[in-house]
Prior knowledge:
Number of domains of chain A: 5
Distance between the termini of chain A: 35 Å
Mean pLDDT of chain A: 78
Oligomer: heterodimer
Mean pLDDT of chain B: 88
Strand order of the largest sheet of chain B: 2-1-3-4-5
Largest interface: A-B, 27 and 22 residues
Radius of gyration of chain B: 14 Å
Strand content of chain A: 15-25%
CATH class of chain B: Alpha Beta
Number of helices of chain A: 23
Helix content of chain B: 40-55%
Distance between the termini of chain B: 27 Å
CATH superfamily of chain B: Response regulator
Shape of chain B: globular
Strand order of the largest sheet of chain A: 16-8-9-19-18-17
CATH topology of chain B: Rossmann fold
Amino acid sequence: MTEKHSQAENMLVKLTNLDQLLTLAGEVIITYTNLDLTYKHLQQLYDKKTPVSRETVDGAKDLASTSAIISSNLHHLVQAIRTVDLTDLSFRTRRLVRDIARKTGKRVRFEFEGESTTVDKTIVEKLYDPISHQLRNAIDHGIEDTLGRQRAGKPEEGVVSIRASNSENETFIEIEDDGKGVDIQALRQKAITLGIIKHEDPFTDDDALEIMCMPGISTTASVSEVSGRGVGMDVVREQITGMGGILTFHSTPGKGSLFTFRVPLISAVNILDALVVRSGNFFFAFPINSVVTTISVERKDLHTSMQKGEMIQYLGHLLPLYSLNEVIDRGPLADTGGLVQVLVVEHKGFTIALKISEFFSPQKLVIIPFNGALTVNGLSGTTILGGRKLGFIIDVPSLIDRATGKRGVRGLRKTSESAKKDLSAVSSVAPAAASQVPGGGAPPASTVAESLALDDTGVIRPGDAAAATQEFIVEIEKLLPSLNEALFALESDPNHIEHINKAFRMYHTIKGNFIMIGFSKGGATIHSVESVLDRVRGGKMPMSAEVMDILMDGVAYIEEVVRISKAGQWTDQPSTAILEASAKILPEEKPQFRRETDVTAEAVQLSHEAWFRANKYKKEMTPSYMAYIEFDAGKQPAFLVACLIYKRFTEIGDVLGTVPPLEDIEKGYMYGKLKVLFASPVEPGLLEESLVRILTRHYGAQAVKFSRFE
Amino acid sequence: MPGMFEGLKALAVDDYENTRKKLVVILQHLGLQVLEAANGLEALEVLRTEKVDIIFTDIVMPEMDGFELCIEIRKIPELRTLPIVVVSTHVDGNYIIKGLRTGADDYISKPIEPDLVERVIARITTTVIPPA
């Protein structure tokens, strides 16, 4: 269980909800106590062979109905806690529509109805992808260009709308456009050509959708031409059905199309497409996307090697063969004779074969995750199979890890890329585009592959630094809704100074947070957005479409950073698109525009990597120093001289960080005061004497202060 | 201080003869022996046969510009530490940083000030820790 997973699972919970939860927990305890008393009373009656009174029966009945009410309340409350409204989704989709319209050069008005609809958090996250697909389709293929709309006698501005609502069991997301609609006749013709229907057969919207969703067909240009849609429809439907939902469709040629996503309110969270197998007396469910194939082999076809144990020949490769029962500590599998049943599973290019007793057909199962989302011995949860039998859900990554670890071959045969292709080509069970294992279940534990990748890149993050990073990321995340709000308010009223100021402050704060956690490139990206806003604010630049684009891209970039950071995977990267777009409209930055900070008071910000080096020097007893230099650059720019001084320090030691940071110095952020934190093995007296001499004599230093840094 | 860098040999690279001559005069005044080149390619040609102690180069030149010259020089193992000073009319920070990134050791803006040239040569030819 790695830390990043537990962090990714965080969510903000309303305090009132937690209070209610506590109250309900109290009621559970009271009910339990009463139930226990009733049981003891019944036991006494039984022991004394006394008949049970009406009163006792009624009491037990009351208790039963009380616990029913409490259970139901608890269930609803927990559901409520897991839900969020669609405000964030509406912001994201509005920005997306804006972006697509900009790229396709179409005029589109976007409406989002039902922002207050509450939906389970994991579902909202999963909805974004299919919605964005569909919005792309609607604008790119549905909405006509201006000329086309004029010809059709429609208003020049196209309309795309999303309506969200909840019924008792389902969430409805309707995506509608007033474009040219789907060419049903062309689709019908396609169906006839393909021999799916006959000429005289009726052709409904559902049939049309079937054709649009045919993989392989829908992605070809021909259908895109005839239907004006189709690109990715199979993917959209797969994502919806993957959540246990349904995709429906209605189109009026010339008038537009309506696509409806119907997804279950909650249950989808914990539904898993799985292949169920029996191994000895136990039942196990494998997520279908990790299953490569199932095979039956003759005993004589198994290979045995002294070092590697049993192996099986598969598509020209020798795969290690393990007994599933043994891998998860359920004892050896009794040899029943006959064919050996083998299941081949894969995760991230690692493929192993497992001996089992029997296969069943793939099915949808409800996951009951283990407490605390832990993975226990290669298992991630339980499920109830038909006939009320208990099944265990396999966590394939940790299972592979266990299996290979048991045999002591950590340097596992990683199947080559070509072999992987071979494997998937014949894969009889796994669908080509495997659907994601729905969230809510246990996340996969870290795998051999992942830990190796970590070793290769040598990424090491100090734990406390990572925790601090998460804190700042959460801070940034909290600001996002208000920033989004300010931007959309600004879009509808571009010269409202209050909105501009608000957006400016938000960007400024977020930039500060970025810099605090050492995301200097991210900070620079946001800085450029902030600079653009600053000029608009100061009346030096009009609030143009270009500016709006930069502002919108800025928040999209921040959202991306937050999302990836929460999964612990963000490395500081700038958004070149934003930097370039803002560079185009900003005048060249001159150093004198920058404000001066108090260098003496500011602490050196260490990057994660510098932090690591600093710790290493500490362990090696290599002394670190803080040098404070005030200098007069004379006839050269101060930032240049600061860069040269920086270089001098690198000649005698390792510079861990500076104030201002090097990136800022290079941008001209320098007023003749510089702090350098560095480590050097040179004898302290000589070091200080030499540096003071060279800096004073050749770099205009007027004050050089040295201190040992602990 | 006239003649203070007696014994050092410099290479002045500039396509514009007037500025190059001015630089040559300043350098000679400081005691350096000076070779000349009109662009990066010519400079590399000179460096093939002559051993110099410091290079002053313009940025914008035909054939091969100053940045490219820096990059080419740093590719030659013997010249990896040869001090290079960029001399340019550009005061834009991006140009200066680009110069430093491509391998230059210092930067002087035009018009050239004699005492800045002196200061730059002095700092560039001094090591942090003097050899014992």
